[in-house]
Amino acid sequence: MDLKPLVEALLFVTEEPLAADKIAEIAGAGTKEVRRVISELQAEYSQAGRGLQVLEIARGFQLATKAEMAPVVEKLFKGENSYTLSQAALETLAVIAYRQPVTRLDVEAIRGVKVDGVLETLQKRRLIRTVGRKAAPGRPVLYGTTRQFLKYFGLKDLDELPRPEQGKE
Amino acid sequence: MDLKPLVEALLFVTEEPLAADKIAEIAGAGTKEVRRVISELQAEYSQAGRGLQVLEIARGFQLATKAEMAPVVEKLFKGENSYTLSQAALETLAVIAYRQPVTRLDVEAIRGVKVDGVLETLQKRRLIRTVGRKAAPGRPVLYGTTRQFLKYFGLKDLDELPRPEQGKE
Amino acid sequence: MEYQVRLPVFEGPFALLFHLIEKAEVDIYDIPLAEITAQYLEHLQAMRDLDLEVASEFLVMAATLLKLKSRKLLPAVFTAEAEEGEALFSIESQEELVQRLLEYRYFRTVAEELRKCEQAQKRVYLRRLGGGTALVVNPEDELSAAGVTLPALLQAFRRLLAEQERQPQEVVAEEISVDKKMREIMRLLGRKNEGVDFLSLFPGRVAVHEIVATFFALLELVRRRKILLWQPDPLGSLVIMRRAKQGEGSKWI
User: Fold this and answer.
1) Distance between CA atoms of A15 and C197, rounded to whole angstroms?
2) Helix C56-73 crosses helix C94-122 at what angle (to 10 degrees)?
3) Chains with ≥3 Cβ pairs under 8 A against B?
4) Tell me: the pLDDT tens digits for B119-149?
5) Full-prediction pTM beyond 0.80?
6) Fold match between A3-76 and A87-160?
7) Which of 20-49 (A) contact C at CB < 8 A?
8) Residues β-bridged to residue A55
9) Structure ipTM
10) Does 3.30.300.30 match the CATH number of domain B87-160?
């Protein structure tokens, strides 16, 4: 079968962004060819009359609505699906994103406040996860960001988050 | 803004089939115009190079993959969609769909077997629901089909139920 | 010597009866009751021989068949007799039996049609929305859908950091206050209609913490739809603008 409709169908149904080589594996085609087809689809969807786009995100591809459609899409959902991060959550997330893996105490040292509740919320939202335990007394849990974090901020991968090489303590 | 991309975006994001008048309301357009745009989209998607289709189902519209894509999409989901109804469930459902509203005893008389367990399963799967009580001794519960039933069988509405020419008493 | 006996499984007594009628190739309106009854009982016996549980419905039907058969032989004696309540079905005549069989057959045919619909629909997939907030689905997505410009924002940010790195700096572990940064940005934008250059938010020497706070403040303002990020040239610098009222402006992002 023709590759393009297959790729289109996969980009549509997938819950998570799909990497080109994963698509290639599923569709039984070459990664290079898949990339070519994705570019074609991107070009087609980018035309003015279309409401969707092929988004490259979190190291993969996925169909999404175009940003211009947001006001109308919002009306459909009337905010039921949406949430914004609280200030505390955002700040905590910033620390974890830039310092991962970190313990709760590390975060609290930087923010100067307790973060138990916030960590729980962020975990529920699947923006952070436990990534292991620190080799230190009490073996405290280490936190890091998730794939969902990348999706939430529209990042392809963590490298896209500016990582200051110095300035770390 | 142009109506077509908006309709396309809505048909994409919606979890439930969207009725044309609901789309019209959200997009701030006339229902007639929305219907015209949907027809256009249907024609465009029906072309050979496309992997998606505009499905008319359960009194609404929704984007979906084309049936020909199933073998590849299945690979992504690893056969998650493989659940099928048992013969007992299907026959029970047939009686309820064509005779609704019906009581449990009505169904049992037609099928010649007890159906308590099957009714429970069908209710759990949201394919049937209680729609009231019969004005008869014991006020037995009446059953009918749900919107999920239409979606499960890919039907536009109950009028679309297959009607065999012969065999009716 | 062992025999592997396989008995077909029937959904219910009507299904079994149907099978027997079809096998005998007789007209449903003219069932040879004695013959079919005998075969029906044989089947039940076979089930018992195989230690299969014979559901009560099958026994009720057996009784019904025997009753109808005997009525045929002795019509005058039995016609008026009231039957003990048979919960599932009470069939009083062969005509009635035929009607019930036809009705059952109708629903079995219909069930087959539904099976076809089911199979066809199984091949059609809808979009999976996972459990969480699907990025592309909700209003928040404007930010992610703005992914087109966000990488640009990040790139600019990275350049800025590279700049910072060339200059030694002392890190003060002060609390990041995104809130404060957001207020600062809005205050700055308040006075300017034409927008503010992205880089101007990051003056010469600031701690990484502050840059991070500014960065997240920008993200949050975009999310709250307070500001717009606009990149006039593909590789040029970003301009931050106070967001116009609903409707306008989304063309930028």
Assistant:
1) 37
2) 150
3) A, C
4) 999 999 899 999 999 998 989 999 999 999 9
5) no
6) yes
7) none
8) A62
9) 0.66
10) no
